[in-house]
Amino acid sequence: AQSVTQLGSHVSVSEGALVLLRCNYSSSVPPYLFWYVQYPNQGLQLLLKYTSAATLVKGINGFEAEFKKSETSFHLTKPSAHMSDAAEYFCAVSDPGSARQLTFGSGTQLTVLP
Amino acid sequence: DSGVTQTPKHLITATGQRVTLRCSPRSGDLSVYWYQQSLDQGLQFLIQYYNGEERAKGNILERFSAQQFPDLHSELNLSSLELGDSALYFCASSVDQGLGGTEAFFGQGTRLTVV
What we know:
A: 114 residues; six-stranded mixed sheet; B: four-stranded antiparallel sheet; 0% helix
């Protein structure tokens, strides 16, 4: 069964610092991978997705993620944090063989300090 | 605005009761997914419908049921409610049958509180 593990339920960074949110996946086949963001009292919004094309994926709001098969990782980064990036971030995996659902990680709450 | 509409936004009800949550997908999307988000379980996939037919089932309790109507809107019915059913229920929609490679758009959710 596929799964994702997000390391660190809470991450704090200073404004302007690098954001690094970690995600490792477990899948028997090369998966599709997604990062979603959830702002307070909002639904989930897709930041970016990996679907076996380029391993470095650029998303919205300056975020990007790199698919590393050897490390089974799909970490999310942003060079310079902004106060508006404070939110909860979810990594999710979908099995291309039966891609009818997303399996989400437990989420990482990002706090941006002034 | 994702284009996915969920009603109501908030719902408070008593244990043992039954409620219906409604979801209107984005125009043109044929798939509807239901997810439950709670503090202890995180985001859990419940069920998926594609063009009116059930396509996938996740961790959905027998007390819960769903359907998708000819106009593609969907309803999630929760019955014999328990305190533990209190959660945020999300609906998502996509064009294809599967989410692989296809972006899913999420509604803002219905917050259900069972007292």
